[in-house]
Amino acid sequence: MAAGEPSYIDYEAFLDPEFSPAGFANSLVLSTNNATDTPLDLSTPLSRVLFDLQEIDTHIHGLTTKSALPLLSYTQNQTAAAEHILKETGTQIASVTQGYERLEKEVLQKWQAAEEARIAAENSLATVRLARAVARCLTLGRQLESQVAELTGRGSTQAPGAGTDGTTNSAAGKEGFRALERAAVTILNLRQMFSATLEEEEGFGLMRVKATRTLRNELVIPAENMVKSRAQQSINRFSLTSTGSTNGQSSMPSSYKQARDARSRLSTAATTLYLLSPITKGVFTTSNYKPELLISTLQGYMQTSIITAANALAKGLSQLPTIERALAEISARCQDIVALESILRSIRIPHHPLLSSTPSDEPPTLDSENAEPGKVNLLQPLLQALDTTSLPSYYWRSLASSLTSRMQEILNRGGVSVRALRSNRDRLKAEIKDCVIRSSQVSATGQLAEKGRTGADTVAVGNWEREAAVMVSSVVGPLSR
Which of 54, 75, 320, 453 counts the most CB atoms within 10 A of its CB? Predict the structure, then answer.
């Protein structure tokens, strides 16, 4: 509709965004009818709506007829512009396509070839690393096998002194304990390779190789169990004294060589169990490493000595004529424990292949008072576990505490043995005290013998009066009640 041209149609109402067809129809019906009329006359509002539509259609037809040429011209211009844009775009697309094809040929294809080469190189490198790890693993396996053969006295070739039927070479077996520590280090190296979890670590992927799995299951694990067992046996059988004498005096080994061998066996076994003790999660340095296997074995040795001594002394007290032999036995046990303490104190913490070293692992002086516990020698972890400052002191105090119930049993039985104990109370007191002091003196001779002296002189070590008083009180005390 041209500007200023009159029209009865309300275009503003129709163009209003809030226009409602239902509301508009309702207003038409109400304007042409009364609200109370029944029925309503809908023909009039319907005719008006149709007339309005016809009027609008006529108006649209008139406008398009008048503006046909401008519309056609505008449409033609738009079509030409679109064709021009399409043509130019096609040229640019073709140029981009050619550039991509050239880029793909010069870069992408070469990159793909380079990527394939890189993957092949990485796989080859991983294969070489794995092959080297397998080769080293098998070399360590052969080394461990020879060390096990040295431990057991059995070898692939007949050693001097072996039987013609290939039986065990007893001489080689006796000397085989020297291979314990070397076998432990070999086992740790293999354990480190088997536990590798990162690609840059040596041994990564070894468990995917059947040969290494077989090696681990059939050689390494049995060898580790055997080495642990041999080391524990060496500690459990450790002794520098002979308890066979009947005069109440325990004797030292018959020769310096026996003392030296016993010391070497204990040192090697203790170091082996220290190395093979399990490493708990979160432990990376020797400063917080606890050799549980070594500690438990040494504790077992201490408990066995205490129980054996308690049984021997209880038997001697119940059969008084055998008391001297019993005192000689418990004295010998104490001498072994003093020697054990001395040897463990002389063994500094060994280097552990799977743990990093700390400044405290430097060679310490044995008489250093400022050294941190657990970081000087192999004695400190045992003292910490037993909550004591001396193994002999722990031995005598534990022995005294275990005698309380045994003395009560002897007293409850009564009879001749109890009367004999009461009548010989003073002699028992003197002999028990002398036994404690004598154990210290003979142990000192043993320590000197280990260092190369074989003299029979005695040297007092420490003040054992308190331990002697505890032992006397545990035996003689109940007799006074």
Answer: 320
State the Cα–Cα distance between residues 32 and 14, nearest whole angstrom: 20
Dmax (CA) of the chain: 151
Q: Please give the model's pTM, rounded to 2 decimal places.
A: 0.68
Domain ranges of the chain: 109-156+169-237, 256-480
Q: Which SS3 state, helix, strand or coil, does residue 168 take?
A: coil
Phi, psi of 251 (to 5 degrees): -105, 155
Q: Is 130 left (phi over 0), alpha (psi -120 to 50) or beta?
A: alpha
Cα 279 from Cα 289, distance rounded (Å): 7
Residues 227, 233, 239, 244: is their CA dihedral positive or negative?
Answer: negative
Burial 243-268 (b: 16+ CB within 10 A, else e): beeeebebbbbeeeeebeebbebbbb
The sign one gets for the Cα dihedral 377, 287, 273, 331 is positive
The residues with which 212 forms a beta bridge, in sequence order, are none
Q: Which residues pair with 354 in a beta bridge?
A: none
What is the CA angle 126-130-133, rounded to 5? 140
pLDDT in tens, the chain (481 residues): 554 555 677 778 878 888 888 888 888 888 888 877 778 788 888 888 888 888 888 888 888 888 888 888 888 999 999 999 998 898 899 999 998 888 888 888 888 889 999 999 999 998 999 999 999 999 999 999 999 998 887 654 333 333 434 344 444 445 667 889 999 999 999 998 988 888 888 888 888 899 999 999 999 999 999 999 999 999 999 988 754 333 334 444 446 778 888 888 999 999 999 999 998 877 778 778 889 999 999 999 999 999 999 999 888 888 888 888 999 999 889 989 999 999 999 999 888 888 876 544 444 433 434 444 445 789 999 999 999 988 999 999 999 998 888 888 888 887 787 888 888 888 888 888 888 888 866 444 445 444 444 343 444 445 788 888 888 888 887 776 6
Q: What Å distances lie between residue 477 and 108, 157, 328, 412, CA to CA?
A: 97, 64, 21, 15
Is 284:356 a contact under the CB 8 Å cutoff? yes
